[in-house]
Amino acid sequence: MSAKHALLCFLWLMGSMALAGPKIEHWPTSKGAKVYYVYSPELPMVDVRVTLAAGSAFDGEKSGLATLTSMLLDKGAGEWDADAIARRLEDVGARLETGTARDSSWLHLRSLTDPDKLEQALITVGQILASPRFAEEDFVREKQRLLLALQRQEESPDQIAQKLFFKAIYGRHPYAQPIEGEIEAVKTITREDLVDFHRRFYVARNSWIVIVGALERGRAAQVAERLTADLAEGESAPPLPDVQEGEDNQVVRRSFPSAQTHVLTGMPALARGDPEYFPLYVGNHVLGGGGFTSRLVQEVREKRGLSYSVASYFLPLKQEGPFLASLQTRNDQAEAALEVLNRVIRAYLDEGPSDKELTAAKKNLTGGFVLNYDSNAKLADYLATIAFYDLPLDWLDAFPKRVEAVTRQQVIRAFRRLNPDRFRTVLVGGSSKADEQK
Question: Which of 20, 285, 406, 436 could connect to 290 by a Cys-Cys bridge, CB 3.0–4.6 Å?
Fold first, then answer.
């Protein structure tokens, strides 16, 4: 083999390795938690993310319960109050974040891999997971904070529109409830409700642990065991109910003293793991997800000047998450903008993307995809999604190929699941002068 040929082979191999996705390994802990691990030795850091099927969809009649439980986790655990927990983490350079979504709640720890520092961080987070205090004083304070936040949301037309939209498309399904809860429901939550929620859902068999960083496999396994050592084994959360198909198109209007009207329209459409995910993802990039190049922006904003912003997206969840198209516009343009929005969507459902649009969308989506997980923290977020939703382990690796394989006919076929005659539409904003004169 010539030196030139050897060099070309080496460069090809290096390029292939750079494009390859991370090697993901997974296994269960002794208590049944599911571990997903990627070795990333570049920095002496590790990101550990614990995800639990404990999101707002499991609130029941106590809307806001999952969020309030998550808010209280690091406000006192075991023998430490909130200040002691903060000091223990700061002393070893560790950071902890918690959060809640519709399907899940999570804790995300970033720590140095130095054994002593990591051990202190893990002991602390292990206690936060397994033994939060939910002290009455802390509970009252955090509950009041949540109520104040909900009151502020009532002053935001965007937040009001989002809540009305989810209620409109989901009806009595658990996804209809706001993640942060509703004021009257939050007022009824007691400390005992948090204790019961934690006891039921914060258990090993209902948890997924993601570890990304400079830890060898054996040490990563020890980290997972340490985190779950004090958790009860428990049981997985029950499956969420199926989303029921809605009735014919409905329009919800809410007056709000603002210069703009917020418009949202759509329907439940896509669950995680759906085989048509990639045609819908690529197709929506053309329709409304591709910024200034998308059809909605071109037709609604650029050609007609009917909106400040306009976009569409799919939000896949355990059960069917929404397809949502939204825009913000002057009050007196709301009806005209909505009419154009609907017309563009209907036309797209009939004709799909052009070959030129499809090629440009694929190039845009694949060109910088690896930058979406170019840090341990970003990779941990993606890996948590793969783990929680039981996606294929090669999902990141296969992403560019799956995008490139999408055809125009696949997009048209996949988008047939959308039926504008069954869209629910929400308008929140002030009245136009014409309306005021009626």
Answer: 285
